[in-house]
Amino acid sequence: MTAFKFSKENAERVKEILTHYPPDRKASAILPLFELAQRQCGGWLPKEAIEAITEMLEVSLIRGYEVATFYTMFNLKPMGKYHLQVCGTTPCMLRGSEDLKGVCKRHLGIENKETTKDGLFTLTEVECIGACANAPVVQINDDYFEDLDEKSFLKILEDLKADRKVKPGSAIGRQGSAPEKRRAHAKGK
Amino acid sequence: MPKLVIDDKEIEVPDDMTVLQAAAEAGIEIPVFCYHPKLSIAGNCRMCLVEVKNTPKPVASCAMPVCEGMVVHTNSAMVKKARKGVLEFLLINHPLDCPICDQGGECDLQDITMAYGRSSSRFDLNKRAVPDKEFGPLIETAMNRCIQCTRCVRFSSEIVGIPELGAMGRGEDMEIGTYVQKTVTSELSGNMIDICPVGALTSKPYSFKGRSWELAHTPSIDVFDAVGSAIRVDTRGREVMRILPRQNDEINETWISDKTRFAYDGLKYQRLDQPYARREDGLLHPVGWNEAFSLIADRLQHVPGDHIAALAGDMVDAEAMVALKDLMTSLGSPHVDCRQEGSSVGMGPRCSYLFNTTIAGIEQADFCLLIGTNPRWEAPLINARIRKNYLFNNLPVASIGPTYPLGYPVSDLGNDPLILEKILKGKHPICSALKTAKKPILILGQGALRRDDGDVILRLTQEIADKYGFVQKVWNGFNVLQIAASRVAGLDLSFVPGAKGYGAQKILEGAKKKKIEVVYLLAADEIDVRLLESAFVIYQGHHGDRGATVADVILPGCAYTEKEGTYVNTEGRVQKTLKATPPPGEAKEDWKIIKALSDKLGLSLPYATPKEIQARLVEVNPLFDEVDRIQPSFWKPFGREGDVNPIPFEFAIQNFYMTDSISRHSRTMAKCVQQILGWEKAHV
Fold first, then answer.
1. What Cα–Cα distance (Å) separates residue B232 from each residue in B38, B213, B550, B578?
2. Nearest-5° angle of CA B408, CA B409, CA B415?
3. Euclidean distance between CA atoms B684 and B676, whole angstroms
4. CB contact at 8 A, B107 and B198
5. Which of A89, B73, B437, B606 has the fewest CB atoms lying closer than 10 Å?
6. Residue B497 CB: number of other CB atoms within 10 A?
7. Which of B179, B186, B192, B394 to mutate to test binding with chain A, by most A CBs within 10 Å of its CB?
8. What is the rounded CA–CA span in Å between residue B408 and residue B397?
9. DSSP assignment of B109-162, as one string?
10. What is the tens place of the pLDDT at every residue in B536-593?
């Protein structure tokens, strides 16, 4: 990869982000800029981007590298087009996240931290992503897919493969994390 | 001044102290890993936990400020339990490979575990494994042993000022490393080995060479630059095994440069271990001392005194210089010079060639002007002091001359000597900053002085110093940064041309024109030796370096670790080295060689014992009686009027790792040149 450069659109965004911080504290912009660069590079943060951004913010290379390695949301290796973050923490595990991982293994042929050969999917098992009421949960790029089971998860994967639109949120039609059967619980039945 | 009670001892300490420091004042030891007195407080190892009355949990004493009426226990059941717990956690991922670890015997983790730890571990799972990192030719890594104290990380970002190390990853996966396997480039990197409390960072050249308890320690002084750092020479038998710093807060604090620390292997190669003489076949043949002296005596017989000259090198001790000067005087020669590179400055009063502010004094400065100097290479520890002042007080630094990253921001005024004239006339933007500064310093490098107009620059800077209040009643901000360990002593002993005497440049030219017939090189190697081909050259020194290649007679002398010698550092501080190992073969102490030669020539010098030569030094200059102290020098006019040459300044040192006959023969330094500077071949 050659030297990293923000796209025209993103360069404008960088200018705007820098206005959030005092000029002598511009190092603080490192997180939003890394995030922006990661989006521009298709979900991962190449070395060249770290170098360009640390230079821009007058931060030493090693400090930038520390930040990039500390936050698990920065991916330092190329990722698939869809980053499947399967939550494996207790509530999701009890509600069947192991089955979801099984789907990935059987239908995509990938284990944790692997990418499919066609470059579409990368599987990462993550710790709690804070949607336990809708367990099991999978985060695909920016969206949460909730209340999944093998069947619904597989459908989502097939749709993504075929480049069809998928609908984020609950797979069983719940509104947010509202009770499954409307007010049944509240009425004491 | 708050009063507090630590282990039933009442103590009153300044209110900016921490509990740990207060305990140290009270003579109570608290074990630490991440705390280091010269670094910022991290508080991440948790080893220094103590119990403070009315706090429910143990407290990290390194980060806890003292306050009035505090009651601290460092030995209660809670503290003991906390220490055992911390150590057990630290050892969970520590490989316990002490028998094959170079730190064994001088390891903080080993010692503290013995004193405060549990006898066994309850951890029966797999330890984590961390890949070793490549830090370059000086530092060996064994990252499994790392306990993430981050001392090395803080060292590189705080003391050096060029952050190269960092903590990658998080939690259990945290690793110390450089940016994508980058070599550590700092000239102070060896100090990370000292501050590493475990065996994660160890010395690469010393790896698997010895154990700390096998070594004999000799306190001595470094001669690779003119700072005169306090060192400890560790030897086993006749061999120098390693060199470590000693603490001297007035000079090097607890650090030394990498050249000081690692160039010692040069002491083993290309040594002159017996006298040699050049025969008719044009080759050097081994001869005995007597024969060598006879050859010199025969050659000198019909040579008039003013056809003889002597040059002293950069690592020569004062004793040898005073003896050689006396010998040359008896021979009737005025042509002596300790400024082998041919510079003309140094004839003035003492303040004109000293670092008058003193190294510790840099910390009080509020403005620093660098002139033709790269302190990072010429005196890494002085650079570290400037950096320290920048770190604590945001010291503004400006520079006239070529630029080099120094580890602190420097406003580059350009590389034009004429800027000095502008500053003197008050016509430069920097003048307003100079006027407002209360304790300004200027550092005049050899890059600005080793030129034909060196004396003019000297006068100009003195006038600037006078005009802008660099010199006050109790403050002298005028500093010349010497780079040769022998230079100040040489100038103090007037090892400079006498009346009608030639300086180094003229001696060499004279030798070419056959006006000078005999040249005595006292370990002088930084000269153009081709000019000496037609002269009779006596080379006295410890290495078969440049000077020895043109020598007709070679007299083997001692390196700095092999003799008791007197050196004066750039501040004018008289210091002494001690003999750590015997010299190789038939080599002798330098002043004794000159004394023996004088006997052979029938010009017996009037001293034969170390005591007598010391007395002679004091006789020539009473300053030599004041060991380890700085004598005030008086401010008098110096330099000469003239026109400044507009040619830009050049740094005096082009290759930090190879500046002299020892470091040129060091294999470690050769690796540094290749791997750190990235040069294919050493430009020597």
1. 20, 14, 35, 10
2. 115
3. 16
4. yes
5. B606
6. 21
7. B179
8. 8
9. HHHHHHHHS-SS----SPPP--------SSEEE-GGG-----HHHHIIIIIISS
10. 999 999 999 999 999 999 999 999 999 999 999 999 999 999 999 999 999 999 999 9
At B316 the three-state DSSP class reads: coil
CB B255 within 8 A of CB B236: no
Sign of the CA dihedral B297, B299, B305, B306? negative
Q: How many CB pairs under 8 A join A and B?
A: 28
| Chain B CB contacts of A63 below 8 Å | 163, 166
Nearest chain B residue to A62, by CA: B179
Distance of CA A184 to CAs A95, A135, A148, A187, B19, Å?
Answer: 21, 20, 22, 5, 61
DSSP string, B444-469: E-HHHHSSTTHHHHHHHHHHHHHHTT
DSSP 3-state percent helix, strand, coil across chain B (nearest 5): 30, 15, 50
Half-sphere exposure of B159 (CA within 13 A, CB side): 29
Whole-number Å distance between alpha carbons of B591 and B608:
9
Alpha helix positions (H), B151-236:
151-154, 191-195
Q: Cα B442 to the chain's mean position, in Å? A: 20
Longest dimension (CA), chain A: 64
Residue whose entry in the numeric block shows the structure tokens 């603490």: B247
pLDDT digits (tens, 9 = 90+) for B247-273: 999 999 999 999 999 999 999 999 999
Pair of tokens at residue B103: 């730190």
Cβ–Cβ under 8 Å, residues B575 and B566: yes
Does pTM surpass 0.95? no
Residue environment code for B204-230, b if the CB has 16+ CB neighbours within 10 A, otherwise e: bbbeeebeeeebeebebbbbbbbbbbb
The answer to whether residue B168 neighbours chain A at the CB level (below 8 Å) is: yes
- Fill in the amino acid letter for B221: I
Give CA separation, B99 vs A97, B45, B110, B428, in Å. Answer: 47, 24, 11, 63
Contact A47 B165 (CB under 8 A): no
Nearest to B164 among A62, A69, A72 (CB): A62
| Count of beta carbons in the 10 Å neighbourhood of residue B394 | 10
Q: What is the value of ipTM here, to two decimals? A: 0.85
- One-letter amino acid for residue B305 of the chain: G
Q: Which of A47, A66, A72 sits opposite B166 (nearest CB)?
A: A66
Nearest chain B residue to A74 by CA: give it: B169
Q: Which residues contact B305 (CB under 8 A, 6 or more apart)?
A: B331, B332, B333
- Cross-strand pairs, B440: B367
**Residue B471 contacts residue B465 (beta carbons within 8 Å):** yes
**Edge-to-edge strand ranges of the sheet holding A169-170:** A121-126, A82-87, A138-140, A143-146, A169-170
Read off the tokens for B382.
């002085």
